Amino acid sequence: MNRFQQLWDYGVKVFGLYEFLKRYQDSRVNPQHSSAAIISLFMCSIAARAGSLYQVERMGKSGELDRLMRGRKKPSADTMGYAAERASVDQLKGYGASMIQKARRNKVHPFGTYRGWRVCAVDGTEVYSTKSPCAKAFEWSKRRLSSNGEEEFYERALAISYVGAQPRLVLTMERISPGEGEVTAAIRALEDLRLRNHRYCDIICADALYAKAPFINAVIEQNMHVLVKVKQDYYHLVRDMDGLMAAEPPQVFYGVTSRDEPIMSNHGVSYDVELWDAEGLTSWEQVNCPLRCVKVRETKKVTSGGEIVSETVSEYHIATTVPIAIMKPLLVWEIAHRRWDIENTVFNDLKQNWGFRHCYTHDPNGIRAVYALYCIVFNLMLLFAYKNLKGAPRRGVTLKELARQIMVGTQTLAQPLPIPPRGSG
Asked: Before 323, cis peptide (omega within 30)?
C-alpha cells in the first residue's frame, strides 16, 4: 500500500482534509495555481521532509512531482513563498483546531496523557538566526548583539503541546513578535486556544520563566490548573514555604525516574527526591487564588555499567493550583519533569528532522502561516502513525522511516491527488 495515499485518505476521511482545501482561499489575485494546490504541495513537502521550497521546486522540474500533481508546470519556490505571504492564517489555524477537536472526540488520549491527567506544556524556542538578512527582514526582525558584538537577526516561536503519552499533539504555535515577551505571547496563545478549543487540557505546566502572576491568572481564568517551577529565591512564596517547612521532615523517594520507567530504559538516570508540601499559601498577592507549593531537593544520579558516574543536587520550588487531596507531591514532581517533552519531542524533532530551522519566508504573515501548516502536518503524521497504523513507532517503524516512505509514495501514486480546482471554494 502506498503510504502517502494512506496518509491522504486518512486526512480526508477522518479530518475532512478535502473539504478544507475546497473552502480555503488566500488573498492572491488571479493566481496561476489554486490556493488548494499550493497548500497541498506545501503540506506534502513538510510531511515528506523535503526541507525547503527550492527543494520542492527542483523536484517539480525533475518530474518527481508528476505523479502527485496534474499539469506540466509546477509551482516555483517564489510562487509558494508568495502564497504563504498571502495565506489566510485564521483558516489554517481553524482547521488545525478542528483536527484537535476531532481527535479528542475520538478519544486520542482515553486515559489522559499522564496518570489520568491531560497535561500540556508551554515553551518558546529560537527557530533560526542570521547576520545577513534580506531587505524585507529589516522591517520585522528581532535583533540582538552576538557574543562578538555583531548585530544578528533571529526568529522565535512559542508552542503549546500535550506532554506525556503519544501522540503529543501541538495545540498551537505562535510567532513571538518583536518587542513582545515570551510570557505575553503565551497569554495571547492561551486566549486563542480558549476560543478555538475549550477545555483542551487539565493542567498547563511551564518552567521558571512563566512564574509570573499574569500567566498564572490567565490559566486560572480558563478553569484549568497551572504548575510552574519557581527558582527565584526572592519570591515571597518561596520564603514563606522555606520558613514554614524549616522544621518539617520531607517525604523521601529513592531511585525514581520522571518517566516512571526502569533505570536501564531511562538511559541510566534516576533521582533521589526529597519533597515538602504545603497548600493554602496567599503570599503571592498578585495571583487570584491561594497556591500550593512543593519544595524539591533532588539528587540526579547517572549510572554506567552499574556504577554511579555523576551526582547532581538541585533545589527548587513548584507552585501549583492542584490540591493535595487529588494529587500527591511525587506526581507533581513527575509532571514538572514531563515539561521537557515539548523540548525533546516537539522542538528538537522539528528542527533536526522536519526542516523547521529553514526560513521559508521573510514575511510576518507568511511565518505565521508556516507555523500553522507545521502544526497541521505534524499532528496529522502523529495521529496517522499512532492511531491509524496502531502505534507503528512502537513496532519499529520510526517517524523518520515513515517520512521516507511518504516521500517515495509521492512519486509512485497511481493517479494525481484529487485537489479541488481553482475557485471551487
From this structure: no
Cα angle 165, 14, 115 (rounded to 5 degrees) comes to: 15
d(CA 388, CA 60): 30
Q: Which residues contact 102 (CB under 8 A, 6 or more apart)?
A: 14, 15
**CA gap 346, 169 in Å, rounded:** 9
Residue 274 has φ and ψ, to the nearest 5°, of: -115, 130
Q: Which tens digits make up the pLDDT trace of 106-148?
A: 999 999 999 999 999 999 999 988 877 776 666 667 788 777 8
Cα distances (angstroms) measured from residue 168 to each of 30, 357, 375:
39, 20, 11
- β-strand partners of 102: none
**Contact between 282 and 211 (Cβ < 8 Å):** no
Distance of CA 105 to the CA centre of its chain: 20
Residue 411's H or E segment, with its range, is none
* pTM, entire model: 0.93
CA atoms of 12 and 21, how far apart (whole Å): 10
pLDDT at 424: 46
Could you give the CA distance from residue 408 to residue 402 in angstroms, rounded to a whole number? 10
CA distance 68 to 60: 10
